[in-house]
Specification:
The complex is a heterodimer.
Chain A (H helix, E strand, L loop, with lengths): L1 H20 L9 E4 L4 H16 L4 E4 L5 H10 L4 E5 H8 L8 H9 L3 E3 L9 E6 H7 L15 E3 L1 H5 L4 H8 L6 E3 L2 H10 L4 E5 L4 H4 L2 E3 L12 E6 L2 H4 L1 H10 L5 H11 L10 H13 L10 H36 L1 H16 L2 H23 L10 H25 L3 H10 L3 H31 L12 H10 L2 H29 L2 H4 L4
Parallel strand pairs in A: 1-2, 6-7, 6-8
Antiparallel strand pairs in A: 3-10, 4-10, 5-8, 5-9
Helix pairs in contact in A: 1-15, 2-12, 2-14, 3-17, 15-16, 15-18, 15-20, 16-18, 17-18, 18-20, 20-22, 21-22
Chain B lengths: L1 E10 L2 E11 L4 E5 L6 H8 L7 E6 L2 E2 L5 H5 L2 E4 L11 H11 L4 H14 L16 H13 L5 E5 L7 H18 L2 E6 L2 H7 L2 E6 L2 E6 L1 H6 L4 H11 L4 H4 L1
Parallel strand pairs in B: 3-8, 3-9, 6-7, 7-8
Antiparallel strand pairs in B: 1-2, 1-4, 4-5, 9-10
The structure holds adenosine-5'-triphosphate and magnesium ion.
The site of magnesium ion (MG) has 3 residues of chain B, from helix 1.
């Protein structure tokens, strides 16, 4: 009895703590700007946000919200209001089945989703071929078609460019390139190879800061092989009505960011050499000040503040996925133990859930959760936060992944009870419910708790994936760290996550003393 | 008190109990005896509805042993098995009082009943707050008996209650059991392998073989008037240990 009460007390305290640190509510009038998981997109997201704020709108930036699919889904449902995109990505990936040719066709297709696109920002982010300026001048090469005259040139390409359907093979066929010495290698090695003269030509993105750093000449795509990847703003059509000032502000910068400018901005946020890194928000603010004489205040949280905030977000994800998982999995485990065929079905389904790749699951959940939230809003007047992007998807995914160990251990714990004990409980004349609550569950508690512990520890690790969809947590610094190749930042996420896993383990070991009946912990001496 | 009419039970292709009828008289101790696997435990489990017969009917005091009556019936039928079947997560006292608390008995009533039973089964009261793993085999069986007797049932079903005990303890408990049976006047069904124990504790002995009743009656009936060679063989195998006290 006291054990039960203590446990409940602990859970309540934990629950309150987590609730308090949980994320804030979303005001309906605010604009949410999203960005992808790479530096350029984050800078552009900052620019869009600061422009909107400067124009008087209430705008926030959910940085590194996810990949293209996540952002597109979120924009369609209105979970975010705007994000920087590339026409090529829309044409070749997101809306590829529509076979869109011109920008007009693209804009018309977007309108059908309630989405508008701005005029191009100025630069195109696409594959280009680069050579050292001196070498290119020496050979008189300025265009890709010039390469046909120099069959002995040595090419070094990123593996991605070598392998993609629209990569090297197509390029070679398109221009009839004769070169035989073509190797796949890591990007950093490619730059070094170029520097040392071991390579003559490599592939780069047109906005890579390395182009300036290594002083590369970019060859003109004179037979238009590479599709346009013009940067644009994508935003919800509705903003034209609700936030015309923001849309107008975004229009002020279109056509003003050249590839060279973008290279420079990228280079400040993620320097190719040893220069200090400048936060994306500062890069954006400096750019807007120089370009449009706009002043925006940039505040950066201290490391400890950031870790604290991440801890809050992480615990929020873990707690709100674990609690429902426990409450769902235990009854499922009981059913699985009592009814053999149903049980096999339950374990099968819960096992299959485990095999769904996490990124796919996160993306698949965006629409249904949004719809569920909208439906709840209609019926009950509140969406319970389900229409948000990030936390709901991460929590549901974590919830689904946490079921298996708990269901399995609950079923095993109950099935493992000695026949004589089970029979005695039945013969005593206890009701089914009393048998379950007073005999079977307490006897299975040790095994069940072990299952919950496993689930919780895995959950803490898995919750880092929440950052893939903008749910924050320790995954955020890990993602940013990987993006910026900054290992101290990766550690800022990885170390607390590992510590939290150990703490969770410890908490459960303590809980075991409270929950598992003393009679089961005694060993015959 | 208990009556089995044409009751049969089959496990797969194995006929554990052949159609048989058996009456357990009120206030007497009936012993089921027979070789291992002959269906003794199966019969006991049919009596408190732990298993359902394929054919026939089991009644207790006129009430059909069927799912809708089981809870009420089982509270009037105490059940003790070989290893005691005590709940390892509960203290001896909680084991004994679990059902009483479940049916809403009040504290003082429970306390006095536990004290009374502890005295009856000769269990030190300081043992009551120990967990099953902390008790000896004999103590566990005493607790198990207390649990079965807690609600003062009309019937007591004991399936080899002394089977796992060493001879000394076993003989103490045998005499304790006899005193308890005699003082309580309950209807008792006891399963044992041991003819000596059957003779010592039972008023009426039922000898089983392969799911069938071979002979029933007093120990003298079985010893002096065996109905077939199997009975004689079964008696002879254990005669050397049959105490003189009983034979006289
Ligand atoms: N649940 C079951 N499933 C299959 N067969 C069973 C089951 N329970 C009992 N049996 C079989 O039924 C027969 C009678 O079993 P029962 O337990 O009644 O024997 P017993 O007389 O109590 O034996 P013992 O003296 O060894 O306890 C045995 O052959 C046993 O193997
Ligand atoms: Mg048996």
């Amino acid at each position: 009895m006291t054990a039960c009460r203590t446990t409940l007390g602990l859970l309540t305290v934990l629950g309150c703590a987590v609730l308090l640190t949980g994320s804030s509510c979303d005001g309906t009038q605010a604009i949410t700007v999203g960005s992808k998981l790479f530096t350029e997109s984050v800078i552009l997201g900052e620019i869009a946000t600061q422009l909107a704020v400067n124009a008087g709108a209430d705008a926030t930036h959910r940085r590194e919200t996810g990949g293209s699919t996540v952002l597109w889904e979120a924009l369609k449902t209105g979970q975010i209001d705007a994000y920087p995109e590339y026409t090529g990505t829309l044409r070749q990936e997101i809306l590829s089945q529509l076979g869109l040719e011109s920008d007009e066709e693209l804009a018309a297709a977007l309108a059908r989703y309630g989405v508008a696109m701005s005029r191009p920002l100025g630069f195109s982010n696409t594959y280009v071929l680069g050579m050292r300026k001196a070498r290119a001048a020496e050979l008189g090469i300025t265009r890709i078609s010039d390469l046909t005259q120099h069959p002995a040139l040595r090419f070094g390409f990123s593996n991605e460019f070598l392998e993609r359907g629209d990569g090297w093979q197509q390029l070679r066929a398109h221009y009839g390139l004769p070169q035989e010495d073509v190797r796949g290698l890591d990007h950093n090695l490619a730059y070094q190879g170029l520097g040392s003269g071991a390579l003559d030509l490599i592939d780069v993105y047109s906005t890579d800061p390395e182009i300036q750093y290594y002083d590369l000449a970019i060859l003109e795509d004179d037979r238009s092989f590479f599709p346009d990847y013009d940067a644009i703003w994508l935003y919800r059509q509705a903003l034209v009505e609700t936030h015309p000032e923001a849309v107008a502000a975004w229009g002020r910068i279109t056509g003003r960011i050249s590839a060279e400018t973008m290279q420079a901005l990228n280079g400040r946020a993620k320097p190719p050499g040893d220069q200090p890194r400048v936060p994306e928000s500062q890069v954006a603010a400096d750019f807007l000040r120089d370009e449009l004489q706009i002043e925006s205040r940039v505040t950066t949280a201290s490391t400890s503040q950031q870790i604290l905030a991440r801890t809050g977000e992480h615990l929020y994800l873990v707690f709100w996925s674990m609690l429902p998982a426990i409450l769902t999995a235990i009854p499922l485990g009981v059913v699985a133990a009592k009814y053999r065929t149903t049980g096999q079905g339950i374990l099968g389904v819960v096992g299959i859930l485990q095999t769904i790749p996490s990124l796919a699951l996160l993306v698949l959940l965006i629409k249904p959760l949004y719809d569920a939230g909208a439906a709840l809003e209609g019926v009950l007047g509140s969406s319970f936060g389900l229409t948000r992007l990030g936390e709901p998807q991460a929590i549901v995914a974590l919830f689904l992944y946490s079921l298996l160990p708990i269901v399995r251990n609950t079923a095993a714990g109950i099935s493992g009870i000695a026949h004589s004990v089970r029979e005695s409980a039945e013969a005593l004349g206890l009701t089914r419910a009393a048998r379950l609550l007073r005999v079977e569950l307490p006897l299975a508690s040790g095994v069940m708790l072990a299952g919950i512990k496993t689930a919780a520890v895995i959950n803490v690790g898995f919750a880092t994936l929440g950052a893939l969809i903008g749910a924050g947590g320790y995954g955020q610094p890990i993602l940013t760290g990987i993006r910026l190749a900054d290992y101290s930042l990766v550690l800022q996420g990885a170390v607390p996550a590992a510590v939290l896993a150990v703490v969770v383990q410890g908490v459960f070991e303590l809980l075991e003393r409270v929950v598992v009946p003393r009679g089961l912990r005694l060993r015959r001496s | 008190m208990l009556s089995l009419e044409n009751v049969a039970k089959q496990y797969g292709s194995l006929q554990a109990v052949h159609p048989l009828s058996l009456t357990i008289e009120r206030g007497r101790t009936t012993v089921l005896i027979g070789p291992s696997g002959c269906g003794k435990s199966t019969l006991i489990r049919l009596m408190n509805g732990l298993i359902r017969p394929d054919h026939g009917r089991v009644t207790c005091d006129g009430t059909l042993v069927a799912p809708e009556n089981l809870l009420a019936l089982r509270r009037r039928i105490g059940y003790v098995i070989q290893e005691g079947g005590l709940f390892p997560h509960l203290t001896a006292r909680s084991n004994v009082t679990l059902l009483a608390r479940h049916v809403g008995w009040q504290g003082p009533k429970i306390t006095s009943r536990v004290a009374e039973l502890a005295e009856l089964v000769h269990l030190d009261s300081d043992r009551l707050d120990q967990y099953p793993v902390q008790l000896s085999g004999g103590q566990r069986q005493r607790v198990s008996l207390m649990r079965a007797l807690m609600l003062d049932p009309d019937v007591l079903l004991l399936d080899e209650p002394l089977g796992a005990l060493d001879p000394m303890i076993r003989s103490y408990l045998q005499s304790d059991l006899r005193n308890i049976f005699q003082s309580l006047h309950k209807t008792v069904v006891l399963v044992t392998h041991d003819l000596n124990e059957a003779a010592f504790l039972g008023d009426h002995i039922v000898l089983l073989r392969s799911g069938e009743v071979v002979q029933q009656g007093s120990i003298d009936d079985l010893c002096d008037r065996p109905v077939d060679p199997f009975v004689r063989e079964f008696i002879n195998a254990q005669r050397s240990t049959l105490s003189n006290e009983v034979r006289e």
